[in-house]
């Protein structure tokens, strides 16, 4: 796979068997259906409890991939994984407090809106609970007591997209942000704009795909010079394809992140490319790092983020990536 040659930390993840995990979910606390990949051996260390708390919105398949990685690491490491999520920052903070009250052995958390989480994360740190962050908040992770962060550098990812678009002579991108105030999404579009100054930002409500489609359609109809529209997540990008058709626009479509449907659209030529942050690795790495910290005081990353991306997926490698996307691990 083609990769950008920026500073990266390599994470080697052994694929191991799934166990039945007792996991709380944001949709009612039922045990997670982990499946069964077969073979391998579970760690003999004492069983520990780790909370994974994300800002995932219902129905966003990206988080299924993050969770799948976390569940595989939990199976290997003899971890009881408690997964909860809420896109509203105040409620995400409440979930962190619940994890503290449950006396978990570690917390893995996304920092999309870090200001709302800083106080409760300080409580976790004061209680002696180790913290890692993932996916969002790389720049503030250490300040919020996380010993490492698993994710992509979103500013660099945005610049990568901008550089690619500039090289292909695009002048007027529309960068669509589905959650205003999300630090990672804002950084992506800022990175694009740094390379292509004519970039416009369009805010949409990512929880309502009908609204996303109509808002983007209206913007494309009003912006006749728009030559490319960029989605910051696979479901958003797939919806933007409909908007381009509805608007009768000649704009091309580019993306961040990945799922099997988006990979197929790249294979088919309907989407130019995407920049993938490899979410399976984020979930796996976050849980495994907390287990390693518990078992031996290890601190993965040496105080620096562990970069899982950006990784470019375009026509040249999308068919290979699609094979893994269909397995739910890309």
Give short descriptive properties of this protein.
single chain, 330 residues, alpha/beta, six-stranded mixed β-sheet, 12 strands, 17% strand
Taking the sheet with the most strands, its summary is: 6 strands, parallel
Q: What is the total tally of β strands?
A: 12
Sequence of strands across the biggest β-sheet: 2-1-3-4-5-11
What is the rounded Rg? 20 Å
CATH topology of the domain at 154-276: Rossmann fold
> Hey, roughly how much beta strand do the residues contain?
15-25%
> Runs with pLDDT <50, length 5+?
1-39
The number of helical elements comes to: 10
By CATH reckoning, the class of the domain at 154-276 would read Alpha Beta
Percent helix range: 25-40%
The SSE string, one letter per element, is: EHEHEHEEHEHEHEHEHEHEEH
CATH-wise, what's the superfamily of the domain at 154-276? Answer: Response regulator
- How many angstroms separate the termini? 13 Å
Shape: globular
- CATH architecture label of the domain at 154-276: 3-Layer(aba) Sandwich
Q: Which structural class fits the helix and strand makeup?
A: alpha/beta
Mean pLDDT: 88
Describe this structure in words.
- The protein is α/β, with parallel strands linked by helices and 330 residues long.
- It has a domain at 154-276: Response regulator (Rossmann fold), CATH 3.40.50.
- Helices cover 39% and strands 17% of the residues.
- It has helices spanning 62-77, 89-101, 118-126, 154-167, 183-195, 209-222, 234-247, 260-268, 279-296, 318-325; strands at 48-54, 79-85, 106-109, 131-134, 149-152, 173-177, 200-203, 228-231, 252-256, 273-276, 306-309, 311-314.
- A six-stranded parallel sheet has the order 2-1-3-4-5-11, sandwiched between helices.
- Strand 6 (173-177), helix 5 (183-195) and strand 7 form a beta-alpha-beta unit.
- The longest helix has 18 residues, at 279-296.
């Amino acid at each position: 796979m083609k990769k950008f040659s920026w500073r990266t930390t390599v994470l080697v993840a052994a694929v191991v068997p799934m166990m039945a995990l007792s996991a709380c979910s944001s949709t009612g606390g039922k045990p997670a259906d982990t499946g069964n990949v077969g073979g391998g051996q579970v760690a003999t260390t004492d069983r520990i409890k780790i909370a994974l708390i994300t800002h995932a919105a219902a129905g966003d398949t990206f988080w299924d991939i993050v969770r799948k990685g976390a569940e595989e690491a939990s199976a290997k490491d003899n971890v009881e994984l408690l997964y909860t999520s809420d896109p509203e920052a105040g409620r995400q903070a409440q979930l962190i407090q619940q994890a503290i009250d449950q006396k978990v052995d570690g917390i893995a958390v996304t920092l999309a809106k870090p200001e709302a989480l800083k106080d409760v994360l300080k409580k976790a740190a004061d209680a002696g609970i180790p913290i890692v962050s993932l996916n969002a908040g790389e720049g503030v992770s250490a300040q919020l007591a996380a010993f490492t962060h698993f994710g992509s550098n979103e500013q660099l990812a945005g610049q990568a997209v901008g550089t690619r678009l500039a090289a292909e002579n695009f002048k007027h991108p529309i960068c669509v942000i589905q959650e205003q105030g999300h630090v990672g999404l804002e950084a992506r579009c800022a990175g694009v704009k740094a390379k292509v100054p004519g970039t416009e930002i369009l805010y949409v409500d990512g929880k309502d795909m009908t609204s996303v489609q109509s808002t983007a359609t209206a913007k494309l109809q009003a912006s006749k010079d728009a030559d490319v529209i960029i989605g910051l997540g696979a479901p958003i990008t797939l919806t933007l394809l409909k908007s381009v058709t509805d608007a009768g626009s000649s704009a091309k479509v580019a993306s961040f992140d990945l799922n099997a449907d988006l990979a197929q659209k790249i294979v088919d030529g309907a989407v130019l490319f995407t920049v993938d942050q490899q979410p399976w690795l984020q979930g796996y790495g976050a849980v495994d790092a907390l287990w390693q910290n518990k078992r031996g005081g290890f601190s993965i990353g040496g105080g620096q983020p562990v970069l899982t991306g950006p990784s470019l997926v375009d026509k040249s490698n999308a068919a290979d990536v699609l094979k893994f996307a269909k397995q739910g691990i890309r």
